[in-house]
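User: Hi! I'm a student and our assignment asks us to look at how structure tokens line up with a sequence. Could you show me two examples?

Assistant: Happy to help. In each example below, the sequence comes first and the structure tokens follow. Example one:
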Amino acid sequence: MSAPKLFVTGATGYIGGDALHEIITAHPDWNYTCLVRNSDKGAQVAAAYPQIRLVYGDLASADLLQRESQAADIVLHFASADDEPGAKAIAAGLSSKSPSQPGYWIHTSGTGILLFPDIDRNTFGESSSKQYDDIKDVGELTSLPDHAPHRTIDMIVQAAASPQCKTAIMCPPTIYGKGRGPGNRRSIQLPWLARCSLQRGKAFQVGPGKTLWTNIHVKDLSKGYLLLAEAAAAGGGKATWGKDGYYFAENNEHVWGEVSHELAKHGKKLGMLQTDEVDSLPADKVGEMVGAGPMLWGANSRGVASRLRKELAWTPKGPKLVDTMDEALQVEQQLIKDNVPITFHA
């Protein structure tokens, strides 16, 4: 297709903002429409990208979402991995297209979907040998228990797959690094761990701190989105679409207890923490600081990104997680001084 029409949700969020930057830098000639909630969000996008068409609403604006999805060649859905009405509206819009001119839906989920065994067992801080490869284990990944985090929306996306609606699910792990978008440029897991450590005056881990997660620098993740969008613009390209179109994006794996120890060392070096010792806290105490903390830092999420590498020659090159710790601590220290609370951003 020539100069495809893209409909983008979550353009002022961390993931969506950086991915939009990557895509629009590579393809300024494409036609972009962004959903924004209000004039303040719209002003952020317009200041960065005057050529973008803005539509105002949210994920409850079903008619608007359906209409814009139907008009688009590619839908990039970054706004939420858990909003059911919004996903259903996008599905309805794309499903009304013609098989001769299908639409492509690139949906953002998250490897939080892999946390369910630890959540079910109520075991936090322990390690797991279970890994999921997005090619070898795709059948298992697309049939995880219905109660797994994000699974409800994954099922909506998978059910929408058809000749007129080509779907792909991007499933990021721990993301780190400063974003380049027009709104929120800050991730969640490492910044919140840094924030809580600074506020209590000492770093901590969940239980024995053996939990494993994979990770990816935000710029490398955005490169994955660019490659998928380019494949869609080429009529599907070499990418897999439909039920098996499930994509992890990772470059390294970390143990959360080791991250906490590194954070403590960096915090002491910067004069922000008095000690480089790390407390082992039970899950309930971590949950008192951040409700989702036991899952974010104490449950296992191990996914292998074979599909992006094999199909789209994706090669992540970003700095390692540990190389971004000083910046994360400095940002959180300033936010504490400014009395900015811990909140989700979109």
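Example two works the same way, sequence first and then tokens:
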Amino acid sequence: MDFSDVTAICYDYTMNGLTSMAAHVSRPFRFISTSGVTVERYQEKALPFLSEYRVLRGRVENALLIFAKQHDDEGVEVTVAKSGGIESLGRDAINAPFTTMLETFGHIPTVRLSELAAAMIDQCLHGITKNPLWGEDLVEIGQRALSPENYLR
């Protein structure tokens, strides 16, 4: 795929969508973007692999935060979920190679899909508590939000 298409999808669609939604929804409006744990917000840092893409994703994160700051008095809140690995039930054989790959970057927690969903919903309903939301944060919030009878379903 041409990188201009990647830029349009990652940056333009995200920012246009956020701008459009924020103009037409009730307040408070909370927006959570998902990103990668290796994405770099500092735009001058030298990156050893996928540097152009990771810098682009960092630029998206920075633009989201700038947008939120510019619209803070209008009740717009933004955060980025950086979950690391995501596990789902019955997919151990598929998840294993990705977990091994992520471990090459150091400790990167694995978040269950149910925890991720519950954490993101919780943050939208009750207010954004942190930026970014790292894997450990998502696990903690997700486990707190889920009751034992619906956990991991």
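Here is something you could point out in your write-up. The longest strand covers residues 76-82.
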